[in-house]
């Protein structure tokens, strides 16, 4: 019979107790009006992860060397966004409270709000590093305040001015982009100014949120709102490497949408990126 | 240039004022955890309707002979189920209040609840004829009371015992099926006992809700929860014909899921059924 | 190495000279505005035919017992409909002139016009048996006189009143259906009155044109304009069997659209039907 | 977190020890040259089974009432057919030896050979009831003796003349069909003569093998070699019901091919059939 | 209800009269023998445009700042290439005559011929800048003079020697490439020599035709004849920016093929490119 | 009628006798457990090759200038890996023995073993240049010694230490990567050290094996185990150009998987690469 651990992400089959990072899925895409599917992101990562190796030739390290637990997917009530965020917050807080690092796999980007709420409860001085094609700073979207397009605005309400650092941004309404100039730090198109930000954030608690559409559409077409002109896989890997010297207290990776990935290549890329992030962040 | 009315369902391009039936879309599938896509049902019907004729050889009538207005899709806030139902109720009530018949195109089956609320507000003595593969009589589903799997239970709370008449049912939990025996009228698998029900409902205000998965999966694979062993297209057409002699005050057709219809044949069938239902119900 | 004859339809690898039936493809769908793809029908039949057997348990006969030549696909200039029909007519006439039966695989239904022109040149008294969901009797479609929706009207201009016998029809504009009542024989929905027609056509030269959308959409979803409420595979087989006692001088099978057949089942069905028709018609 | 048993087929989460039927997957399609994918059949049934209910309105029974264990998928070495069959035989024999009924989910039809070998080892007088579109009686296929097209010939070598009873057959080479007339019992196209066979097999140990392509292609397009003209879901259900009064000592269900099932409807049908067969066979 | 302007490309909802650029679709792919689908390009751009923003962070400008009218799709008779080009020419000429800039969205590349005919009628001294992977300079293709593979040859007949400037070319027959050396200016593979051409064309009326397959297949797989080794999105954007200082009197963007874009990413890219081109060209 | 040579790869329609390179397909993917489909690679290349030109603007040469024969696909018994490799070895050896260069199109990468066996039989001093994302140096995979994941280890057993030169490698288990350090030459991620290797191999007989997944997933998603971070098309072309100055005695190109290439762009790229490799290698 197949290994029972096949229901865990590859290499993430340690116990909760012994693990320093806890991965969990947040299968929610309830506010995505246009091209849904991100709800299947975490389960696709879980099953497809067996097509990659646990060993990284980039870092010459192996998932077998570290202690990670895959807690599976949260059971989220689709159609009830408020409750979805509460469930995420509660579980992420439990992990933080146990002295571990929560690593959430989306789901749409709004799920980050639940985990950021948990992180800010524990770390008053929380800073957020945000890799994304979209600034997500709207105050409302289609009349709703809780949306994938408003998530960083909601996070800003929690952490305050100049605590959010965005990279790779190449899409937004004029209004939100202009608002952002006064309230967050935005680096358009690429990571060119990441070094300075990393320097400035040394010693601070950092939440890292990676919306996978920061990648160029050629590299990662399997997402709901693909934006041409993005970063390459190597550039993203390099950026994660730089950020990993900071004190990452929680993190997430969102917006893989398997139904929009007919070749499967975006899903496999997400698995590989997950491995690299885990190896980078784990200390 | 193409006809501007191409943004209307074929043959439904009369004005609101002159029309007796008002068709509108309810593009919502927020409670569908498993295989979403019904949110695209109404817009697919709208654009694909141009592949069928306005003339029915079954009834020797033409959509050009009747007055129907296609109001387009409601703008619904995904992720906020409560508000979605309020918007539907409000719009359906406006149509009813104007002395017209609302014909809603889903969307998932839960949208029926909004329209039933409107109908019951106007017609205290409302009865419901329900064509479906699933009894949808659960009290809760995944902890939520508002769900595609609970919609007829919620409707029952509005209309009371023995006012719901189900046909074609072939799936349900044991608990809900047994509960149904005491509270609704259920005809399993087919329409064999429809004649008697039609006889009994003469003169009563009737809401007709057609979950398209009442059709056999061979006939209609493009739906979220296909159930083998269903009725044929001819049987459904025949059943609608019988029901149309009643006083239909409002109606809907739900659960077409275009992403699950790669050949497009289910979508075209839904368009054709819509034409036949319009011609039958219009008096 | 694979058999060189793999580029022939299975069992149709005899020489032109020794064959009594000549199969050829007409890969054209130039007038199909809505859901193109029928141009790939004949080549799909050719390659997928190797998934069926040459033996028919229905007739207890084998393609190995008869002499059929597959001439491959005609090279047709897409975008030049007039020339396309000329090329078809010329090739079909050559086959007829050599005392053989042309069996054309479409392509969209308009290709039948080319072959009917050839047949009517040789057989002044030609009659047409037409299996289809659509009456195709429009005089114009989108301003064009040469269209898949006008093909039988053009054929009527060649053979005259009461020489076309339609079966399975269940779609048309009111105008064309009413026009048809005066000029052609139309049997709606099924083959119920086929026996009488066969009796009446004994001894006449007959062209048999099968638009595969005569089949129900459950049986044959892989076509450009699927119409629910059609005939079953057994009913179609039975009808072909009855017709085969007539003097079929030419025939065709059109409107398989492989891009609309993601499961591949419609293509395999077309291959099987082709085998049965060949075995029935060959004498 | 989601229920850990989500990695079991719905309702098959009892322990091995307490269960009377043991379901297991045989994810192999190594001899399928044409349209592979059956290897994914068992895992698709496992995950999609959560879209159906455990309760059967056909039998008014529930999977919760019976004791079934889902052992998961066997780990099979693709590319090594001989070893694949050995592994299947070994596991099926272990189940039989423990006094339980093995129920194998394919995979391609050849996997049945492994389980039949196990059954014939325990039951010398084994008879086989075989539902299929194809007779599978070839002696060789593409030069190989172990193939999905030869599986019943290999089984015949184990059980001997007149011990195999085929139903629904509608495809085969002339040679194998004629060979079959002397060695097996074949009922073409349907189940019309099933009653007599059931009567005759009372008291004998029976292996039931269901190749899902016995179903009509409209009902079950998601399979490698779809054959038009098959049985309906109701007919198959009825046939299983009749057979279930016999002493079924082992059984299987094969040839669901998820990649050929883009709408997902064939997979859901297989899940529903599995439930009905379990409820019928369990005593 | 949804905004009625949803049937316009986002941000292109001004009136014809007040607009300086008129966008229109030319849904034609009648000469594409191999992989059709470009006919759906313009309508896909129209509906998918709502997934991007009207604001460009590249240019810090917004579609709201400019005046563009989307006239919808021309109604083109598929199967009649000559008439298709006449309709395009007529409409483009009307726009030019009204002192506006026509911006045509294909459709296959042949549609450019219609618009170039209109432009050359108004501007005798017309020059053409041509971004493409293919030189499209054949005299005939499959026996036809009007084809996507001959379009620039036909344009050359209108404008004469050395008036066509091609960039990004990486495919052609030897014959057409060699012919081109004597009659047009061809820059292979990239835009490296664009600056000089822009300099030379200052003050001349320029038609800009962008065949989207000039982009690398990684960036833009959703097209009929993808060619590896193309330019990046940034390079194309940069090239458009340079060209926009010229006197662009008419332009087009062709060869998006939505059926070949299963992830949807190519369609979204085309929308984004359209926004950038509009903002660049509008003065 | 279409040219009979359409069943040959474009430009490869010379006779066996006059040709210097013989292309043949090895349609096998029997050991691919995860995402099969490579078995369809060679036939897809054959039919899609007609969408590219025979002329290369990169090399200013044309396939018409050289003599290549396409022998079609080998008939391989799926499910019998040992025999598959024997058939490949036998055919490749026949070509080598006739003084020609075999160029095999896969199929999965394991097919290379058959051709390497043939080459090493003729050239005792054989060296292998290996372009791939994966090192394929495992000793066993899922208990089998013959696997796509072990193919280079099996080749190493034939040619010995330091005779295999790998480029582009970015995935492997720690064990195989470490083993490789002692036995083969591995250049990770790119071709940066190719010049030195080419220099060193001057005068030696070289087998060139190109696993197409060496390309970045953005460039070539249509493969079973896509790996982000790969080389571009230009880099691969450049590398092939460099290698072509060596004495290439046999070569292959593997792992195109058409079912994983829904846009078709990967298949077209493989055709174009095939053309370039043929023109480079032919002397």
Automatic annotation (TrEMBL), chains A, B, C, D, E, F:
Biological process annotations from GO: putrescine biosynthetic process from arginine, via agmatine
UniProt keyword terms in alphabetical order: Hydrolase, Manganese, Metal-binding
Enzyme class, spelled out: hydrolase
One Pfam family per UniProt: Arginase
Comment on bound cofactor: Binds 2 manganese ions per subunit.
SUPFAM superfamilies recorded: Arginase/deacetylase (SSF52768)
Enzyme Commission number(s) from the entry: 3.5.3.11
Ligand binding (Mn(2+)): 109, 132, 134, 136, 211, 213
Alphabetical list of InterPro entries matching this protein: Agmatinase-rel, Ureohydrolase, Ureohydrolase_dom_sf
GO MF annotations, alphabetized: agmatinase activity; metal ion binding
Cofactor(s) this protein cannot do without: Mn(2+)
Assigned protein family: Belongs to the arginase family. Agmatinase subfamily.
Official protein name in the record: Agmatinase SpeB
Organism: Thermoclostridium stercorarium (strain ATCC 35414 / DSM 8532 / NCIMB 11754)
Gene behind the chain: speB
């Amino acid at each position: 019979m197949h290994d029972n651990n096949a229901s865990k992400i590859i290499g993430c089959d340690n116990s909760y107790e012994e693990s320093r990072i806890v991965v969990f899925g947040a299968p929610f895409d309830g506010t995505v009006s246009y091209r849904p599917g991100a709800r299947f992101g975490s389960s696709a990562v879980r099953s497809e992860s067996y097509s990659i190796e646990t060993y990284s030739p980039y870092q010459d390290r192996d998932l077998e060397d570290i202690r990670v637990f895959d807690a599976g997917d949260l059971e989220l009530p689709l159609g009830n966004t408020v409750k979805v965020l509460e469930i995420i917050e509660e579980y992420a807080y439990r992990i933080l409270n146990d002295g571990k690092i929560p690593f959430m796999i989306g789901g749409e980007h709004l799920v980050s709000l639940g985990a950021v709420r948990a992180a800010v409860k524990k770390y008053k001085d929380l800073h957020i590093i945000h890799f994304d094609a979209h600034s997500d700073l709207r105050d409302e979207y289609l009349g709703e305040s809780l949306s994938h397009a408003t998530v960083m605005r909601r996070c800003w309400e929690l952490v305050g001015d100049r605590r959010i650092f965005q990279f790779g941004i190449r899409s937004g309404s004029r209004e939100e982009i202009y608002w952002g100039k006064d309230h967050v730090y935005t680096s358009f198109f690429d990571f060119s100014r990441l070094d300075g930000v990393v320097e400035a954030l040394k010693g601070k608690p950092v939440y890292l949120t990676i919306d996978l559409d920061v990648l160029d559409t050629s590299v990662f077409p399997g997402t709901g709102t693909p934006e041409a002109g993005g970063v390459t896989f190597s550039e993203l890997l390099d950026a994660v490497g730089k950020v990993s010297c900071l004190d990452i207290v929680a993190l997430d990776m969102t917006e893989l949408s398997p139904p929009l990935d007919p070749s499967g290549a975006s899903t496999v890329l997400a698995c590989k990126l997950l491995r690299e992030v885990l190896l980078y962040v784990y200390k």
